[in-house]
Write a structure and sequence with these properties.
homodimer; four-stranded parallel beta sheet; cytoplasm (chains A, B)
Chain lengths: 415, 415
């Protein structure tokens, strides 16, 4: 039996055990995991050094090595994050709706764990802990499939998790790590419908696209954010400038940073140059359509492909539009339906924009950078779903739950 | 451009129009569709006769021909069903949750249409109307891909729907019928991620399995029901017998009918023969394990494959188990996680069964036949989801919705 199928079976069986653990039992297990990570900090750092050495030998880029690398401080942060998960409300067992039928049947729609969650991810070993902790909290078993670049760290971490769970009411088999990081094990996960209820990719666009394309197991697509700020004719200049700079610059490498700026033409004539020059001063390369190039120095001519590009870098495309309707059309054509903002003092325009723009999150007079599970107050974030099914937008603990109808009767039969 | 891509694009564009129609506009469109179907009854029946003739020439089975066939009465029923949809509450626009942040941001999690729904289905032309009506009610565009056996009926019906929508506020492009019913158009739908948000298969196991296996578009899996009744040691004999007969016989061809009966051994010694003989008297072929064969005449020896078989017919497998735990293990091993019932007077056993059995719907002292959107009071049923994501169990209008976070600020940026 292959490693993936074997661990799939173990995870499925464990899911029935962890699925009915009490909140106290799950929180106790989480506390033991946090304690284990702190106590075994040296073992984790030693294993992590093997990954770093091996990565250097393979010539991995500094930015990937930075994602792989753990430090004492990072391990402390990871353990602290588990303590925060302990404090969150356990969603499992909630009766979301009760339906009482005339025939006396009582139907309780109750919140239950999904069962077995698969997580396929790249370099960062903190995802191993983070995903395991969220799974334990929500009574799910989890199958972790990280990348070869962090395998030593992941093995060390999961060993500690297993030791912690062995001293808790949660069965250690609830957390499974696929040790073989070859392509074949990813492909096997894509077909593991018998044991896996959902597969969540966390990483770059190539990984996510592959999972969406190949997986037969239901996927929650997280990811790409070609986000826009649209500055309407009535926008307050200072607010528009502050939001644009924040949305582009506060952390350019993340999915809720903007990649494109749309400006209403009259507003552009008055204030456009100031905003765009401020971006350029901060080191942003600006790709503009013709009126922008004509008016503002140092702007490069945008190619058609720029409107659909997620730079994740100090670059931005800028387009002049006639009105809010053109802005909406442009966003619905080129956006990735992630986070979109309008800056306006015209209530009607804000209302139309909120209604017509197709995205997980639509903002009026605020930065797109707030699309985040912690900023939304969920206390945790599994990822940001960009699909319409199951969960859309920032996903908290509830995204790892399903429902079960529990029906109580006294002999009812259907006529 | 292929028919599927062309209609995908039209549907996507139309989804932005129908998505913001008011409840009144959508209900008015539905009323016009119902009126159109009634007025054009003769045209529909004439087209349907072409399908029936063609089906007879191709040698389709009487049961398939019955599913294809329309009558005046069936058309009336179909039109009446639309009027019922009009009466349902429109789920779109509901603010499900409001989050107020310390920084003044107000975050409304609002219910929105999914966008473009794909429905891939078999013979029955009533699904064409049913699916279109539920899509219109929920502000979704829909792409219908029926089977060749009902293509003339489907073309006639969609022509009428388009005429009705042309006289309404809903754009006719919101309802698209794929006219080419070759395998290629199904395959194209599986890859239509740019224009299709979800694909729902309705039909037999082969169709559903194909869609789950092949589709890159997110799927809602509906379907297979290998359902059980477990009779516990304390079960009231009359209740156990009545529920078993009802769950098996009231409509054997549907997914929430039972395929397997589990009986606690002591109860079996006292009352088993009576229940099983009653099934046999009603024409049911019984496949039992050895103790059942030994004790009850006319029972055939069950093969191992029987425990996992969905007969959808007057057949049942019967197994003797020692206790509720063995029953739960058997159900979680062989069941399809659809609908499962325990008959018991022991509260603890009922509680364990409800908690541990992994299924969309778990019953205590009631027939599994109640797993149904109408019986649950949803007023409509898209299908019964057997997956854990998005929707599980009977799906009403809400299963055709997603969410959007609408955030209002006054210049907030992220620190």
């Amino acid at each position: 039996m292959s490693e993936v199928i074997e661990k799939g079976k173990l995870a499925k069986k464990a899911s029935y055990q962890i699925g009915i653990c009490t909140t106290k039992e799950k929180n106790d297990a989480l506390a033991k995991i946090a304690e284990g990570l702190r106590k075994n900090e040296k073992a984790i750092l030693a294993a992590n050094q093997l990954d770093i050495q091996s990565g250097k030998e393979k010539g991995l880029s500094p930015s990937i090595l930075d994602r792989v690398e753990l430090t004492e401080e990072r391990i402390t942060d990871i353990a602290d994050a588990i303590l925060q998960v302990i404090d969150l409300t356990d969603p499992i067992g909630e009766v979301m709706e009760t339906i009482e039928k005339d025939n006396g049947l009582e139907i309780d729609n109750t919140r239950v764990p999904i069962g077995v969650v698969g997580m396929i991810y790249e370099a960062r070993p903190n995802v191993t802990v983070d995903a395991a902790a969220l799974a334990v909290k929500t009574g799910n078993a989890i199958i972790l499939r990280g990348s070869s670049s962090a395998i030593h760290s992941n093995l060390a971490i999961v060993k500690i998790i297993h030791e912690a769970l062995a001293n808790s009411a949660v069965v250690p088999d609830a957390v499974q790590l696929i040790e073989d990081t070859s392509r074949e094990t990813a492909s096997e996960l894509f077909r593991l419908n018998d044991y896996l209820d959902v597969l969540i990719p966390r990483g770059g666009k190539t990984l996510i696209d592959t999972v969406v394309r190949e997986s037969r197991v239901p996927v929650i697509e997280t990811g790409a954010g070609n986000c826009h700020v649209y500055i309407d004719d009535s926008a307050k200049p200072d607010m528009a400038k502050a939001i644009t700079l924040n949305a582009k610059l506060q952390r350019p490498s993340v999915c809720n940073a903007i990649e494109s700026l749309l400006i209403q033409s009259d507003w552009f004539d008055q204030y456009g140059e100031e905003v765009i020059s401020a971006l350029i001063e901060k080191g942003v390369t600006v790709y503009g359509d013709t009126p922008v190039v004509d008016k503002v120095p140092l702007v490069q001519e945008a190619a058609n492909t720029d409107w659909g590009t997620e730079y994740l870098d100090l670059k931005i495309s800028v387009k002049i539009v006639e009105d809010v309707y053109e802005a909406i059309d442009h966003i619905n054509t080129y956006g990735t339906k992630h986070s979109e903002a309008i800056i306006t003092e015209t209530a009607d325009h804000a209302s139309i924009f909120k209604q017509k723009v197709d995205a997980t999150t639509v903002y009026h007079n605020a930065s797109t950078r707030f699309t985040d599970g912690f900023e939304f107050g969920f206390g945790a974030e599994i990822g940001i779903s960009t699909q319409k099914l199951h969960a859309r937008g920032p996903m908290g603990l509830k995204a790892l739950t399903s429902n079960k109808f529990i029906v109580s009767g006294d002999g009812q039969i259907r006529e």
